[in-house]
Amino acid sequence: MSAGAAQSSLSLIASSLVCVASGFCLEWSVEGDGLQSAPLEVLERGPAGFRRVPPAESGIRISNQLDNERSIRNRNLLSGSGVAAGDFDGDGWCDLYFCGLDNGNRLYRNKGNWTFEDITGTAGIACDGQDSTAAAFADVDGDADLDLLVNALGNGTRLFRNDGTSGFVEITKESGLASSAGSMSMAMADIDGDGDLDLYVANFHPTTIKDRPNTKIRVSLLNGRPVVSSVNGVSTDEPELKGRFEISQSRNILEYGEPDFLFINDGKGVFSRADYLDRFRDENGGRLPTLPMDWGLAARFADIDLDGYPDLYVCNDLFTPDRIWMNDGQGRFRAIPKLAIRNTSTFSMGVDFADFDRDGDTDFFVVDMLSREHEMQHLQVSEMVSKNEPHTLMQSRPQVSRNTLQVNRGDSTFAELAYYANVKASGWSWGPIFLDVDLDGYEDILVTNGQLRDFQNADMAAKIEAQKQGRKLSQSDILKLISQFPDLRTPNAAFRNNRDGTFSDYSAQWRFDQPGISQGMALADLDNDGDMDVVMNNLLEPAGLYENQASGPRVRVALRGTTANPHGIGARVAISQNGGVQRQEMISAGRYLSSDQPIRAFGVQHGSFDIIVTWPGGQVTEVKSAKANRAYVISEINGTRPPKREVRLAKPLFRDVSTAIGHVHHDQPFEDFRRQLLMPFKYSQPGPALCWHDVNMDGWDDLIVSSGAGQRLAIFRNGRDGSFKPITAPILKPTNWDQAMVLPFMPGQGGSGLIVGVSNYESGSSELPSGMIYDFAKREVAGFITGQAGSTGPMCQTDLDGDGDLDLFVGGRILPGRYPAAAGSVLLENRNAKLHAAHRWPALGMVQGAVFSDLTGDARPELILALHWDSLRVFGWEKGSWKPRELTLALGLTPHAGWWNGVATGDFNNDGRIDIAATNWGLNWRRKPSASNPKRIYFSDMDGDGIPETVEAVRRDGRWQPERRFGILRAAIPIVGERMAGFGQVGRSSVEQVFGDLLEGASVLEVAEFRSMLFLNLEGGMKAVPLPAEAQWAPGFGVVAEDFDGDGGLDLFVAQNFFATNPEYSRCDAGRGLVMLGDGRGGFRPMPSSESGIAIYGEQRACAVSDYNQDGRIDLALGQNNAPTKLMLNATGKAGLRVRLKGRGQNPATIGATVTLRIPGGPAITREVQSGSGYWGVNSPVLVLPGPDGQRELAVAWPSGGRRTYKIPAGTRQAVLHENGKATLSQKQ
Q1: CA-CA distance, 579 to 988, in Å (whole number)?
Q2: Which of 282, 465, 513, 1037 has its Cβ near the most Cβ atoms within 10 Å?
Q3: Handedness of CA 228, 231, 233, 239 (dihedral sign)
Q4: How is residue 1031 annotated by DSSP?
Q5: d(CA 230, CA 240)
Q6: pLDDT digits (tens, 9 = 90+) for 721-768
Q7: Nearest CA to 449 among 513, 384, 534, 385?
Q8: Alpha-carbon distance 751 to 411, whole Å?
């Protein structure tokens, strides 16, 4: 035992002897091996939540004061101050230190029973005369008592050494920390593994020049480029202004912050400032081009990738991006890969880390300034981030003006799920904290918020701007105008963990919703009952003390390290009980301007459990059979270093072999919003489509990929050895339009051909054909016209009339310039390879996906459609009739109106009936419609320009209210600017109040379901079953149902993501392509990317399957918009029985056939041969069924109506079946 650790242990035991009389004091006992424990007194106090302890009871009367004029002249002061928690005098009670702006800082000694004594004067740490921001109690010199660090705007970081007699001695200069920086939050950790705590300081600026009244900025041209040459007459070449200003591409003047500081501790509390550019590198390990000068607000060390080394997240305000740094194990950092985190918050205030979903990895939550209230979301308009990265590019990391919840996928990459989890908004937020408030074993979220002046108030900003334009204003006038911005005293937020990846707002239920301006927040067990209480620093009102009133069983853990890190900062503490594991990390500072008491608390169940501590140095200490309602102090003395386990990674299901085709899809930009400003997202980026088809008729599937305008249809010939070769032919010329769906087609004289849809969405031209027919035998291309109104989207084929050729459905996807009006669709009869309209749906809807499948089991195919602003729709036909009958209502699908994109069919529960899998927009979107709370859109030509305007609306308190803000509504429909006074009025008003008679004659559509679904075909109709959560994280497009792992159950693959949203909305980027393994009973298990081998980050569209290398395993092709096409080889699935059906006449692939595999003692497995399904995908007509073990039989229902049964001997790997009964069987692949 080190001397420091021994002293700490003895002082801890002694403390129990002097405070027993106070009540709630912990009475420690030694259990051996350096372990100490004490019983916790837990009171039954009713429901979980908080009691705010009044100042008259606690004696804590500090109120963070700020002079009004100072707050106007220097907005940086409005970011407030924090609080530090720690037992600085070692008496067993946690003390509190509050920072202040105008009124100095205060140290309060905890006397027990929620009473505190102000001892600032005797301790000598008031820090009068400075704008104190952050504070932290931390043992910087390894002597086992808590020293104090204090940050300030203009005074950097000050260090006060604990003298061991309840006093402090300032050693700032001697410590090497002295500076004049505008320092905000700090974080501490042992970054280099030498046993002591190093320090990171996030810097802002003492003042902001640009925001000062009457600041004069001079802009000049340098080499033809505008630059800021002087500010208030001072040249920007001067040291204090060098690099501080920049002109953005959008011609905005940007003011930068200050560089952050990293200080390396020598173990004795003496620090050296590290060379930032030496310690921090880009994601490739290269030197950063410039020293970052960000607006740093918060910093937090956390072991993000669980490699034992503290990584670093830095929250930066304004346009400067957040920085996520991964520790290399040597105390140097590399930027996290761009694709690991897809987006960040814009005005990032604070961050916290936790394994909130208890899946064993580290997630994190960052807060921004989005209000929880509908009206305020309209009124508060964030300044657009002029340096934001384009959200339409796969490799970009855009900033979004809302909270972000980054959920670890298990490989240190993150899916951003704040919308999905219901935590996108918490007001003008400052500090988030994960805390298990109700002690149910799952961490909840607390957020402080509020602001003295709501500078996002768009109405007030417009009023002030109008007055500025009207006359020349003095500095006094400007100060008065700025003071008119209203304050924002909002309730703090509490979100309860629902244990399913989502949260519910429990602010009121937990009595945490007192309005005010709360900023720094910290956790501490102030009453020694083993749960964490909350303390916060409030601006212009008394500090908040919140007693945690949870009554459930708990355990409190403190650590005693053997190095100069006696509190075990950076150690990971795990509680293992009843098969579940909770994990927390011991931190120092890292809160927004604040620092917790260095302990952790867990909610547990009655009975025993194990505590496992992984120390920063890698040693592990285990406490077996720990008990609930006890506090433990766990020592590192007897920690052991576990043997290094060899991790053997199983081979993933798929292997990426995309280089075999080397294809990249290109889509020329088109500005949908210039034509219809109020569309929620673009429709000009639908492709590419994918089609597996034996183009050269050699018995091997080739791959066809549709193109964007200016490109040519891409065809890749299968080389039979895993390779592909692009086919070049004179008829494959670049097109002037986007190509839509691609289908195989047999020309009249035989041979191979293709039907390729033509999109006229961008041009709007009625002169374009609906599609093109490529006849490879004749080397001809000819267009065909269907006469439908709308841009061609999905297509699918079947032999509806039983004449031996394939009839064609052509879906209308959208009417160019008339979103969301219903497009027309058409059914074309194939007569000797000539297409004739057999039935028209003049206004069927916005059809996105289509498939023919036999849902009713009558050996006649039904047409299943996926549409936007509608339910799935199903049509059937009587024999001999081309007039469809709609089955949607009878099947129970009508209530499920959504934004459906793709549809696939299969027997997912092996009951002999064909079920439906359909992709929808998902739940990680700004709105989640339901039957009780649908989403609505109104549309009509409201301004007489011939183009319909759209009004998205949400229902609140029985009224429909506009979703879009006043500014965009006024730009699209100018009369709104005459009817409405501004942003706030629109936010308060109903659509009738905003638009009035403009809504007369408007069409209305509603959606009630955004979840991607499975519809099980049961005797009583379709049963809607949501697909697993991961399928709801992003919009789904392509979907295929195949047995990828060869276990006999149908699996699903879903293509995900959509980036082309309007600029006010976040892009949808949380998907990577999802494999879900079916259990044969209608249930699915999502495969993590480490198992599936699929991690694709772009905008995925069509997907299609084929056993292209004929090894008996289903392979996958996946198209991405404006990105590489992916080819995934099935590497580890169980090889099955390949079944090829040989048809006659114009349907050689027997599209529409049904094959049922019967295995003695097993379920009947049914598959269909289809042409066109999912979202713009065509799968191979060659089926792969479970096999080859055991004898089985195949029953085939042929498209002609005939049925035959074929005996398949054991060991058969390939079967070629003919309608006349002939079967060619092979035991070779």
Answers
A1: 50
A2: 1037
A3: negative
A4: G
A5: 12
A6: 999 999 999 999 999 999 999 999 998 777 899 999 999 999 999 999
A7: 513
A8: 49
